[in-house]
Design goal:
By secondary structure, the protein is α+β, with helices and mostly antiparallel strands. Helix content is 24%, strand content 36%. It contains eight helices and 15 strands. It has a 15-stranded mixed β-sheet that branches. The model has no long low-confidence stretch (mean pLDDT 92).
Length: 311
């Protein structure tokens, strides 16, 4: 167990459709009762968390806590890994999560509870573990964007776009979004996927390249993914011949058993290169839009880029 310094809590008040703001008094009361040094920084809009974290005067044992959902986590880790103010430590930055957003997918992999008091207790316990980070280059981020949970390409990204418009729980919204996209059944791009020394070309309806296990609130895109193995997990689905077959595949994702279906493949790798030979790719990373109709992506794993406060 490590002695954790000051906690810099980056709170996104609109996370969880505004429910996150109501957690601030509970966070303050707990940390004050523990007599632990902390500062709460409240974001006002997209990009705020990233810029705040880039300029924090971090001490060598300070931890930056993302209090929100997966989008907040994404901004915080991008801030930590593109810092302007030099760190006083030669060790990777310390990152923690208070999962008070809508989906809280990343936090589910290390088992961080959604109960604020329980999660704060875990943060103060000081159990540090290596955390790999992914990097995706392409679309709106030609210079690269870091991610901790995963990249979704194709069907699940379009589902996420639709789900984000719904004012209901993440997993339910994602399920409704999936039904809408199954009904539409848009054409799938033909994608060449290179994973380390392996290569495959196929009409891919879903491609997931993940560090964490879950996306969309309850869908296990990488059921066996590990946060500290130096690799990313990939799962891709060849376009089924009918809507019914796609529905059958989709129903396996909440159980993480999709590889039992015909046309579903999985593996692991450190470097990925994806090229759309026909059509374009809709892509997100940790819920952040990378592109709507992209043609090329580079994705890689950066082992142990952060230290995670976990169970």
């Amino acid at each position: 167990m490590a002695e954790i310094g000051k906690l810099w809590v980056v709170l996104n008040p609109i996370a969880g459709k505004g429910k996150a703001a109501k957690q601030r008094p509970k966070i303050e009361q707990f940390l004050q009762a523990q007599k632990h040094d902390f500062t709460i920084l409240v974001t006002k809009g997209p990009g705020d968390a990233l810029e705040m974290v880039r300029n924090l005067p971090l001490g060598p044992d300070d931890a930056v806590i993302a209090a929100g959902g997966d989008g907040t986590c994404n901004e915080v880790i991008n801030g930590l890994l593109t810092r302007i103010t030099p760190s006083l430590s030669d060790k990777p930055p310390i990152f923690g999560v208070l999962p008070i957003g809508r989906g809280n997918d990343f936090a589910s992999t290390p088992g961080i509870p959604e109960d604020v008091v329980q999660a704060l207790g875990i943060l103060l316990a000081g159990n540090l573990k290596p955390l790999d980070v992914g990097m995706v280059k392409g679309g709106f981020f030609p210079g690269g964007r870091y991610f901790v949970n995963g990249v979704g390409i194709g069907f699940d990204t379009k589902v996420g776009f639709d789900a984000a418009k719904m004012k209901i729980k993440s997993g339910i919204a994602y399920a409704f979004g999936a039904i809408l996209n199954i009904i539409r059944y848009d054409p799938s791009p033909v994608i060449r996927i290179r994973c380390d020394a392996h290569e495959v070309t196929l009409p891919a309806i879903i491609v997931s390249i993940v560090n964490g296990r879950r996306m969309g609130g309850s869908f296990y895109m990488g059921p066996n993914a590990l946060l500290d193995d130096g690799l990313l997990d990939i799962c891709y689905v060849q376009r089924p011949s009918s809507r019914l077959k796609l529905m059958k595949v989709f129903l396996h994702y909440p159980k993480g058993t999709q590889t039992a279906c015909e046309g579903v493949y999985s593996g692991r790798g450190a470097q990925f290169h994806l090229t759309a030979l026909e059509g374009g790719m809709a892509v997100h990373c940790d819920g952040e839009t990378v592109c709507y109709d992209g043609t090329e992506l580079e994705i890689s794993c950066i082992p142990g880029a952060l230290r995670l406060l976990g169970v």
